[in-house]
Design a protein that fits this description.
Distance between the termini: 15 Å
Shape: globular
Number of strands: 5
Structural class: alpha/beta
Number of helices: 6
Largest sheet: 5 strands, parallel
C-alpha cells in the first residue's frame, strides 16, 4: 500500500489499475493539478507529480482564486479588494512552491504554475483544463461527509460533475 502523510492509503491494486489504464490509452501528456496548498491537496500534489514523472507528462499546477466576495454589495472597498488579491497571490505562490519542490526531486519534470481569477473555482479548473488541452485533472478532497459536505460543498464534486476529462480525486 502507498501511504502519504495522514491520508487514506491507496492499495497497490488501485494504483496499478490506474497506471495500467493510463498506459493503455497513452493519454497522459499534460496533467492539470488543482491545488490550494492545503493539507488536503498534498496527496493530490504527490500523485500528480508521480504520474507526470512516470509518463513524462507536462504538469500544470493551477491555483484558482474565488471572486472577491463583496462585489455587488454596494460600494467596493478598494483597500479590501487589494488585500484580498495580494493574499490570494501569496497563497498561490506558496502552493506552487510546494509543487515545484516536489518536481525537482528525482528526475525533473516540466512544471507550469498558473493562477486563475475571477471565476468560480470549479468552473475555472474545468475551463482552463479544456482551453489548455489537458489530458487529466487531479484534485484533492477534504473527504467531508454528511452535513459538512452539504453546507461547504465540494470543489472536487463540482469538477467531477462539470468535466469531460478524466478526474482523479485524491483523499
Amino acid at each position: 500500500m502507498r501511504h502519504i502523510k495522514g491520508s487514506a492509503s491507496v492499495s497497490a491494486a488501485q494504483w496499478g489499475f490506474f497506471n495500467h489504464f493510463a498506459q493503455r490509452l497513452h493519454m497522459l501528456k499534460h496533467i492539470l493539478l488543482a491545488t490550494d496548498g492545503s493539507a488536503a491537496s498534498d496527496h493530490a500534489v504527490t500523485m500528480a507529480v508521480d504520474l507526470a514523472r512516470k509518463f513524462e507528462a507536462k504538469l500544470t499546477a493551477l491555483y484558482a482564486v474565488d471572486p472577491y466576495p463583496y462585489l455587488g454589495m454596494g460600494e467596493v472597498n478598494s483597500q479590501g479588494l487589494n488585500y484580498y488579491k495580494q493574499a490570494a497571490q501569496e497563497e498561490a505562490a506558496s502552493a506552487h512552491a510546494k509543487v515545484a519542490a516536489l518536481c525537482q526531486q528525482g528526475s525533473p519534470i516540466g512544471f507550469h504554475p498558473v493562477v486563475v481569477e475571477e471565476r468560480d473555482v470549479a468552473i475555472g479548473i474545468v475551463e482552463y483544463s479544456l482551453a489548455e488541452k489537458a489530458d487529466m485533472i487531479v484534485v484533492g478532497s477534504h473527504g467531508r461527509t454528511g452535513i459538512a459536505r452539504l453546507v461547504l460543498g465540494s470543489i472536487a464534486t463540482k469538477v467531477l460533475a462539470e468535466s469531460t476529462l478524466p478526474v482523479l480525486v485524491a483523499r
